[in-house]
Structures are given as C-alpha cells and as structure tokens.
Design a protein that fits this description.
The protein has 264 residues and is α/β, with parallel strands linked by helices. Helices cover 36% and strands 25% of the residues. It has helices at 29-36, 71-79, 111-117, 126-139, 155-168, 186-203, 213-219, 237-248, 254-259; strands at residues 8-23, 41-56, 60-64, 89-92, 96-99, 173-177, 205-209, 222-227, 230-234. α3 packs antiparallel against α4 and α4 packs across α5.
C-alpha cells in the first residue's frame, strides 16, 4: 500500500501501537515495595495491529467497536496525539478539531477563558476567536453563563458549548467521540440537527466514534469496525453493523477487559 494524497485528508500505513503497562503484585513484601514506588511487572498490550486506511475529503466515516477494542487509540493516532510504532506512517492534511464531551476544557475556568485558551489548539487566532465567541455562546444558549466556571455547568451545558465550538470554528476535519448535538430541550436539538446537516456536513470531513447504530446508519458513508486492534472497512454502514453484531458482540470479553484502561 502506498500513499496517494490526491484527495485524502487522512492516510495511515502499516500502523501498529503497543502500550507498556505495569502489573502490581500484592502477595509479597517485594511486591508491596514495588507498588509503593509505582513500579511493577511490565507487560505489553498491542492496541492497534497493522492498520491501513484512507479517509477522503468530504467523507463522513464512522468507527464502531466494543470498549477496549482500539477505537480511541485509532482516533488519537489520526489526531497525532499518539504516534504509531516504528515503521508505521500517519499523514493528515489541513486543520482539525477533536470534539468530545468537555474537549479538554478546564473546569476551573469560564467558558470564555476556555474558548480563548483553546484557540491555538483549534487553529484559530485570538483575534478571530474573540470575534466568534459571541456567536458561539449564543448558539450554545449559554449567554448568562459565559463567565461562569465550567465546574458549575451541567453535562448538557458542556456538550452544547463543545458542539457550538465545532460548528462555529472553521476546520477541515472534525473528530467526534459520539454525536451530542442532540442535548438540551427540543428547540436546541432541532437547531443542532439542522446546522449539523446543512452547514457542518457540507464543509467538513467527519470521523465519528459512536455506540449509537442509528446515528452510524443515518450519517456515515463508510464505517471502520475495530476489533482487538484490527480495523475492517465497510462501504455500507448496514453491512458494518451486521458484522459487528453477529461476529464481534458475542465474542470473548477477555481482550476488551485487558485494554479497557487504555481505550475507554
């Protein structure tokens, strides 16, 4: 497999990822000493194995799999937060936002402070984000709470803020952990789905991790199924969901439990 960057926003070639974890033993004095010092017996876990995939500009791609299968590790690799083992290659074009509930917000800071602080991460200048802030906070319906610390926000308020940032900030690639535009009252849900369909999908390439199969079927043009670190690609979302339900959901949970800490 070779790279073809003509229309690809993400290209991954022969990428694996191994984590080293430390098991602690409590049955001996030596084990208790090692525990106290933060040491233990090292053990390697292969989170992703020889992944090869490409994502084209304008695609809406879904990622599904059980907890601990490697989904989040794959998303971290796409974002550049995790590098593959030696020999693997990851290439990403353009700007991106990693959107998850909280999206790295500091709970001790206000919405205004969080958005301004994250401007560089979002690839937006401070002057530009200041211009956009009022629009972001209005869309999120959080005007009375713009200068309130996020630790006092409800889960839904944080979700609305994160969603508004993703919608209002211009970016090429949107990496999403679950679609949570449908939070809040019916009015906000309707508004969120409208802007998601009419604006956000038209301008961005989207990669979505989700456990909601109806969302996967509704939005995705292609789906990656991750199982024990291996990635299978399906051009038809319904085929991917059928494969996941019949071939994976009933399989052993041993590997899932072993790596759940690494890939929640």
């Amino acid at each position: 497999m070779t790279f073809d960057a003509s229309n690809n926003i993400v290209s991954i070639e022969n990428a694996s990822k191994t984590f080293t974890v430390f098991d602690h033993h409590v049955g001996s004095l030596g084990g208790r000493i090692f525990n106290a010092m933060g040491w233990g017996t090292p053990r390697k876990i292969l989170a992703l194995a020889d992944v090869n995939l490409k994502i084209k500009r304008g695609e809406f791609v879904g990622i599904i799999g059980k907890n601990g299968s490697g989904k989040s590790t794959l998303m971290h690799m796409i974002s550049g937060a995790i590098r593959p083992n030696k020999g693997g290659r990851v290439k990403r074009e353009g700007s991106f936002i990693r959107l998850s509930l909280g999206m790295g917000f500091n709970p001790e800071l206000s919405a205004r402070q969080n958005v301004l602080l994250n401007a560089s991460i979002l690839g937006v200048s401070l002057s530009e984000i200041r211009k956009q802030f009022d629009e972001i906070i209005n869309f999120a319906e959080l005007v009375p709470f713009a200068d309130t610390q996020l630790k006092f926000y409800s889960t839904g308020m944080r979700a609305r803020l994160a969603f508004a940032v993703a919608v209002m900030v211009s970016t090429d690639l949107l990496l999403m952990d679950e679609f949570f535009g449908g939070v809040g009252d019916e009015g906000f849900k309707k508004k969120a789905h409208k802007v998601f369909n009419e604006s956000l999908l038209k301008d961005k390439t989207v990669v979505l991790i989700s456990h909601n199969m109806e969302t996967i079927k509704k939005y995705c043009s292609r789906v990656f199924v991750v199982n024990d670190g291996k990635v299978s690609s399906f051009d038809n979302p319904e085929d991917a969901i059928q494969y996941y339900r019949t071939e994976i959901q009933g399989s052993s949970l041993d590997s899932e439990n072993a790596s759940e800490l690494l890939d929640p």
